[in-house]
DNA sequence: AAATGCGCCAACCGCGTGCGC
DNA sequence: AGCGCACGCGGTTGGCGCATT
């Protein structure tokens, strides 16, 4: 009798891999629209797709979701990512939560392709007194941010809108990065204050 | 025109966590 | 308490397209 792992491996081998076809997208979108984006294993089995649940979930989250914003990143988004990355590190899902319509995968790719170099070159700029401050303090700020979010989510009184940066936030006087200096921590404080009711 | 290198993006993989039983 | 399942996350890889030689 074959071990469970062996049969799993055999099943995995027979599953489709690689790029999704338009037909597969259609099937997945139709199924999710009808049953909702959950139970990905059964989505994979019942939708007639020869894919694993994980693959279906990823495809939905990164491509098929109706609120996905495609196209190149604006300067404001770049700036926001740079700042959040300095704060949070490689916590892409947290960063993505602040960029409506952008996925963690997309942000991660964009960072690796474009922003990492930019960030490095910024690091090389002449001594920036608050950069050091950011490096030493950023984790505690990040932890504060994460902790607060966790608490809010746990208590159920989170107001998603307050956590989000509007896609047009450069026009939004309540949180205008363009008017915030790149050096101080003021923007972080403002950012955190936005979460308070 | 062909070969090679490089950048970018979509997708995969492994691991950790949360939850229900 | 322990187990299995489902899901989420971040790192990595594969492949395509464009630029350069």
Give the secondary structure arrangement, pairings included:
Elements: H1 4-14, H2 22-35, H3 40-46, H4 53-64, H5 75-88, H6 92-97, H7 104-123, H8 129-155, H9 160-163, H10 186-193
Helix pairs in contact: 2-4, 3-4
The structure holds a DNA duplex (21 and 21 nucleotides).
For the structure shown, list the relevant keywords.
mainly alpha, elongated, 197 residues, DNA-binding, disordered N terminus, 62% helix, 10 helices, Arc Repressor Mutant, subunit A
Report on this model:
By secondary structure, the chain is mainly α. The chain has two domains: 4-64, Arc Repressor Mutant, subunit A (Orthogonal Bundle); 75-193, no CATH class. It is built from ten helices and no strands. The radius of gyration is 21 Å and the shape is elongated. 14% of the residues are buried. The model is unreliable at 1-13, 128-140, 150-185 and 191-197 (pLDDT under 50). The protein binds a DNA duplex (21 and 21 nucleotides) through residues 17-20, 38-41, 52-55, 57-59, 61-63, 90-93, 104-106, 108-110, 112-114.
Beta-strand portion reads under 5%
Give start-end ranges of low-pLDDT stretches. Answer: 1-13, 128-140, 150-185, 191-197
Average of pLDDT: 69
Distance between the termini: 60 Å
State Rg.
21 Å
Number of strands: 0
- Note the run of SSEs as H and E: HHHHHHHHHH
Shape: elongated
Number of helices: 10
């Amino acid at each position: 009798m074959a071990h469970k792992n062996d049969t799993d491996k055999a099943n995995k081998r027979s599953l489709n891999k690689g790029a999704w076809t338009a037909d597969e997208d259609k099937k997945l979108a139709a199924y999710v629209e009808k049953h909702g984006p959950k139970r990905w294993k059964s989505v994979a089995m019942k939708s007639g797709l020869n894919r694993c649940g994980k693959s279906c979930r990823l495809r939905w989250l990164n491509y098929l979701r109706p609120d996905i914003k495609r196209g190149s990143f604006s300067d404001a988004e770049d700036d926001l990512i740079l700042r959040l990355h300095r704060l949070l590190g490689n916590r892409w899902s947290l960063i993505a939560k602040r960029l409506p319509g952008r996925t963690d995968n997309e942000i991660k790719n964009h960072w690796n392709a474009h922003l990492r170099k930019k960030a490095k070159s910024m690091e090389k700029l002449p001594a920036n007194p608050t950069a050091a401050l950011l490096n030493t303090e950023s984790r505690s700020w990040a932890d504060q941010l994460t902790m607060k979010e966790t608490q809010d989510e746990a208590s159920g009184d989170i107001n998603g809108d307050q956590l989000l940066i509007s896609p047009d936030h450069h026009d939004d006087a309540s949180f205008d990065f363009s008017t915030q200096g790149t050096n101080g921590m003021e923007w972080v404080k403002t950012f955190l204050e936005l979460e308070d009711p």
